[in-house]
Amino acid sequence: MSMKYLLLLGSIFCAGTAAAQQAPSFNCDNAQSSAEELVCSNPKLAQLDRQVGTRFKEALEVVRKLDAGAQEAEKELRAYQRGWIGGRDECWKSDDLESCVRLSYRQRHAELVARYLLEDATAVATWQCGDTPANELVTFFFDTELPSVRIERGDSISVGYISRTASGSRYDADFGRFIWIKGDEAQYREPDPDGTEYSCTVVKE
Q1: Does residue 64 sit in helix, strand or coil?
Q2: What's the whole-model pTM score?
């Protein structure tokens, strides 16, 4: 086998490897929405797709190792992932398809990291809310591309990501829940339909 032929094979292999590294996690030949078609044509969005795909696999590994309820947790994770894909594909209704798709990926990445603790938290804070000492919540903060938070209150867990505010740091979570932090104090809102808001103070960091 000649050296020229070996060099040709090497260049073909490298080109194929580079193309695979730039492709999204799904097969572009089967793209089924304008969002997926855009991801296939946009290397930066394809990179975000691979990133979310990797985090999804890591989350699957986490739930499969649970001592109890692993199957139900995996079923729920897969359902949420399908729901997220459906929401991403709704970006065709947006005036700016690319911005909508990019934000969708950044939010999903933040959600997966925070909910399944796929990275070490950069900070953890415990808050006393309202007038009852037992009314506490714990926040875990993550330095994802879109900064995210995991909120634990009793047996409930929710995740959110930072939003723009004039002051402080506000993290919006699911079902209307949010925590708006200003130094050692915060305003916390319960999910709908209750929607009760509490004034909170840091008790441990």
Answers
A1: helix
A2: 0.85
Instruction: List Cβ neighbours of 47 (8 Å cut-off, separation of 6 or more).
Output: 22
- Give the residue numbers spanning the domain of 166: 123-204
Question: Residue 170 is part of a domain; what is its CATH number?
Answer: 2.40.128.200
If we measure between CA atoms, which residue out of 52, 137, 124 comes closest to residue 88? 52
Q: Could you tell me the two tokens for 21?
A: 């590294």
Tokens read off for 135: 């009314």
**What b/e sequence results for 170-205 when a residue is b if at least 16 CB atoms lie within 10 Å of its CB, and e otherwise?**
bbebeeebbbbbeeeebbbbbbeeeeeebebeeeee
pLDDT 10s digits, 146-198: 999 999 998 899 999 999 888 999 999 989 999 999 999 999 999 988 899 99
Domain count, the chain: 2
Q: Is there a single domain that holds both residue 110 and residue 33?
A: yes
- Cross-strand partners of 150: 140, 159
